[in-house]
């Protein structure tokens, strides 16, 4: 299993699957601001833990999947 984890890190790209964006609010002085969070899937915590422990910086790319044309007709 350790070899699999290391191989995934060396690939350079990890598919995190479909994620949702969550909105929360935080205070700066007297002003409330929006903050948007992306929660990583817990089924890959072993990978997130390695990245965190090794202090590996990541770049995040967001792919917006094209909606199926049959779904568009329903709306």
List keywords for this structure.
75 residues; alpha+beta; two-stranded antiparallel ribbon; 3 helices; 2 strands; extended
Protein model, in words:
This protein has 75 residues and is an alpha+beta fold. The chain has one domain. 33% of the residues lie in helices and 21% in strands. It contains three helices and two strands; from the N terminus they run αββαα. It has helices spanning 2-11, 45-53, 69-74; strands at 21-28, 31-38. A two-stranded antiparallel ribbon has the order 1-2. Strand 1 (21-28) and strand 2 (31-38) form a beta hairpin. It is extended. The chain starts with a helix and ends with a helix. The mean pLDDT is 81.
Task: Write the H/E string, N to C.
Answer: HEEHH
**Average predicted confidence as pLDDT:** 81
Helical proportion, percent range: 25-40%
How many H/I helical runs? 3
Q: What Rg do the Cα atoms give?
A: 17 Å
Distance between the termini: 45 Å
List the helices and strands and how they pair.
Layout: H1 2-11, E1 21-28, E2 31-38, H2 45-53, H3 69-74
Antiparallel strand pairs: 1-2
Give a short summary of the structure.
By secondary structure, the protein is of the alpha+beta class. The chain contains three helices and two strands, in the order αββαα.
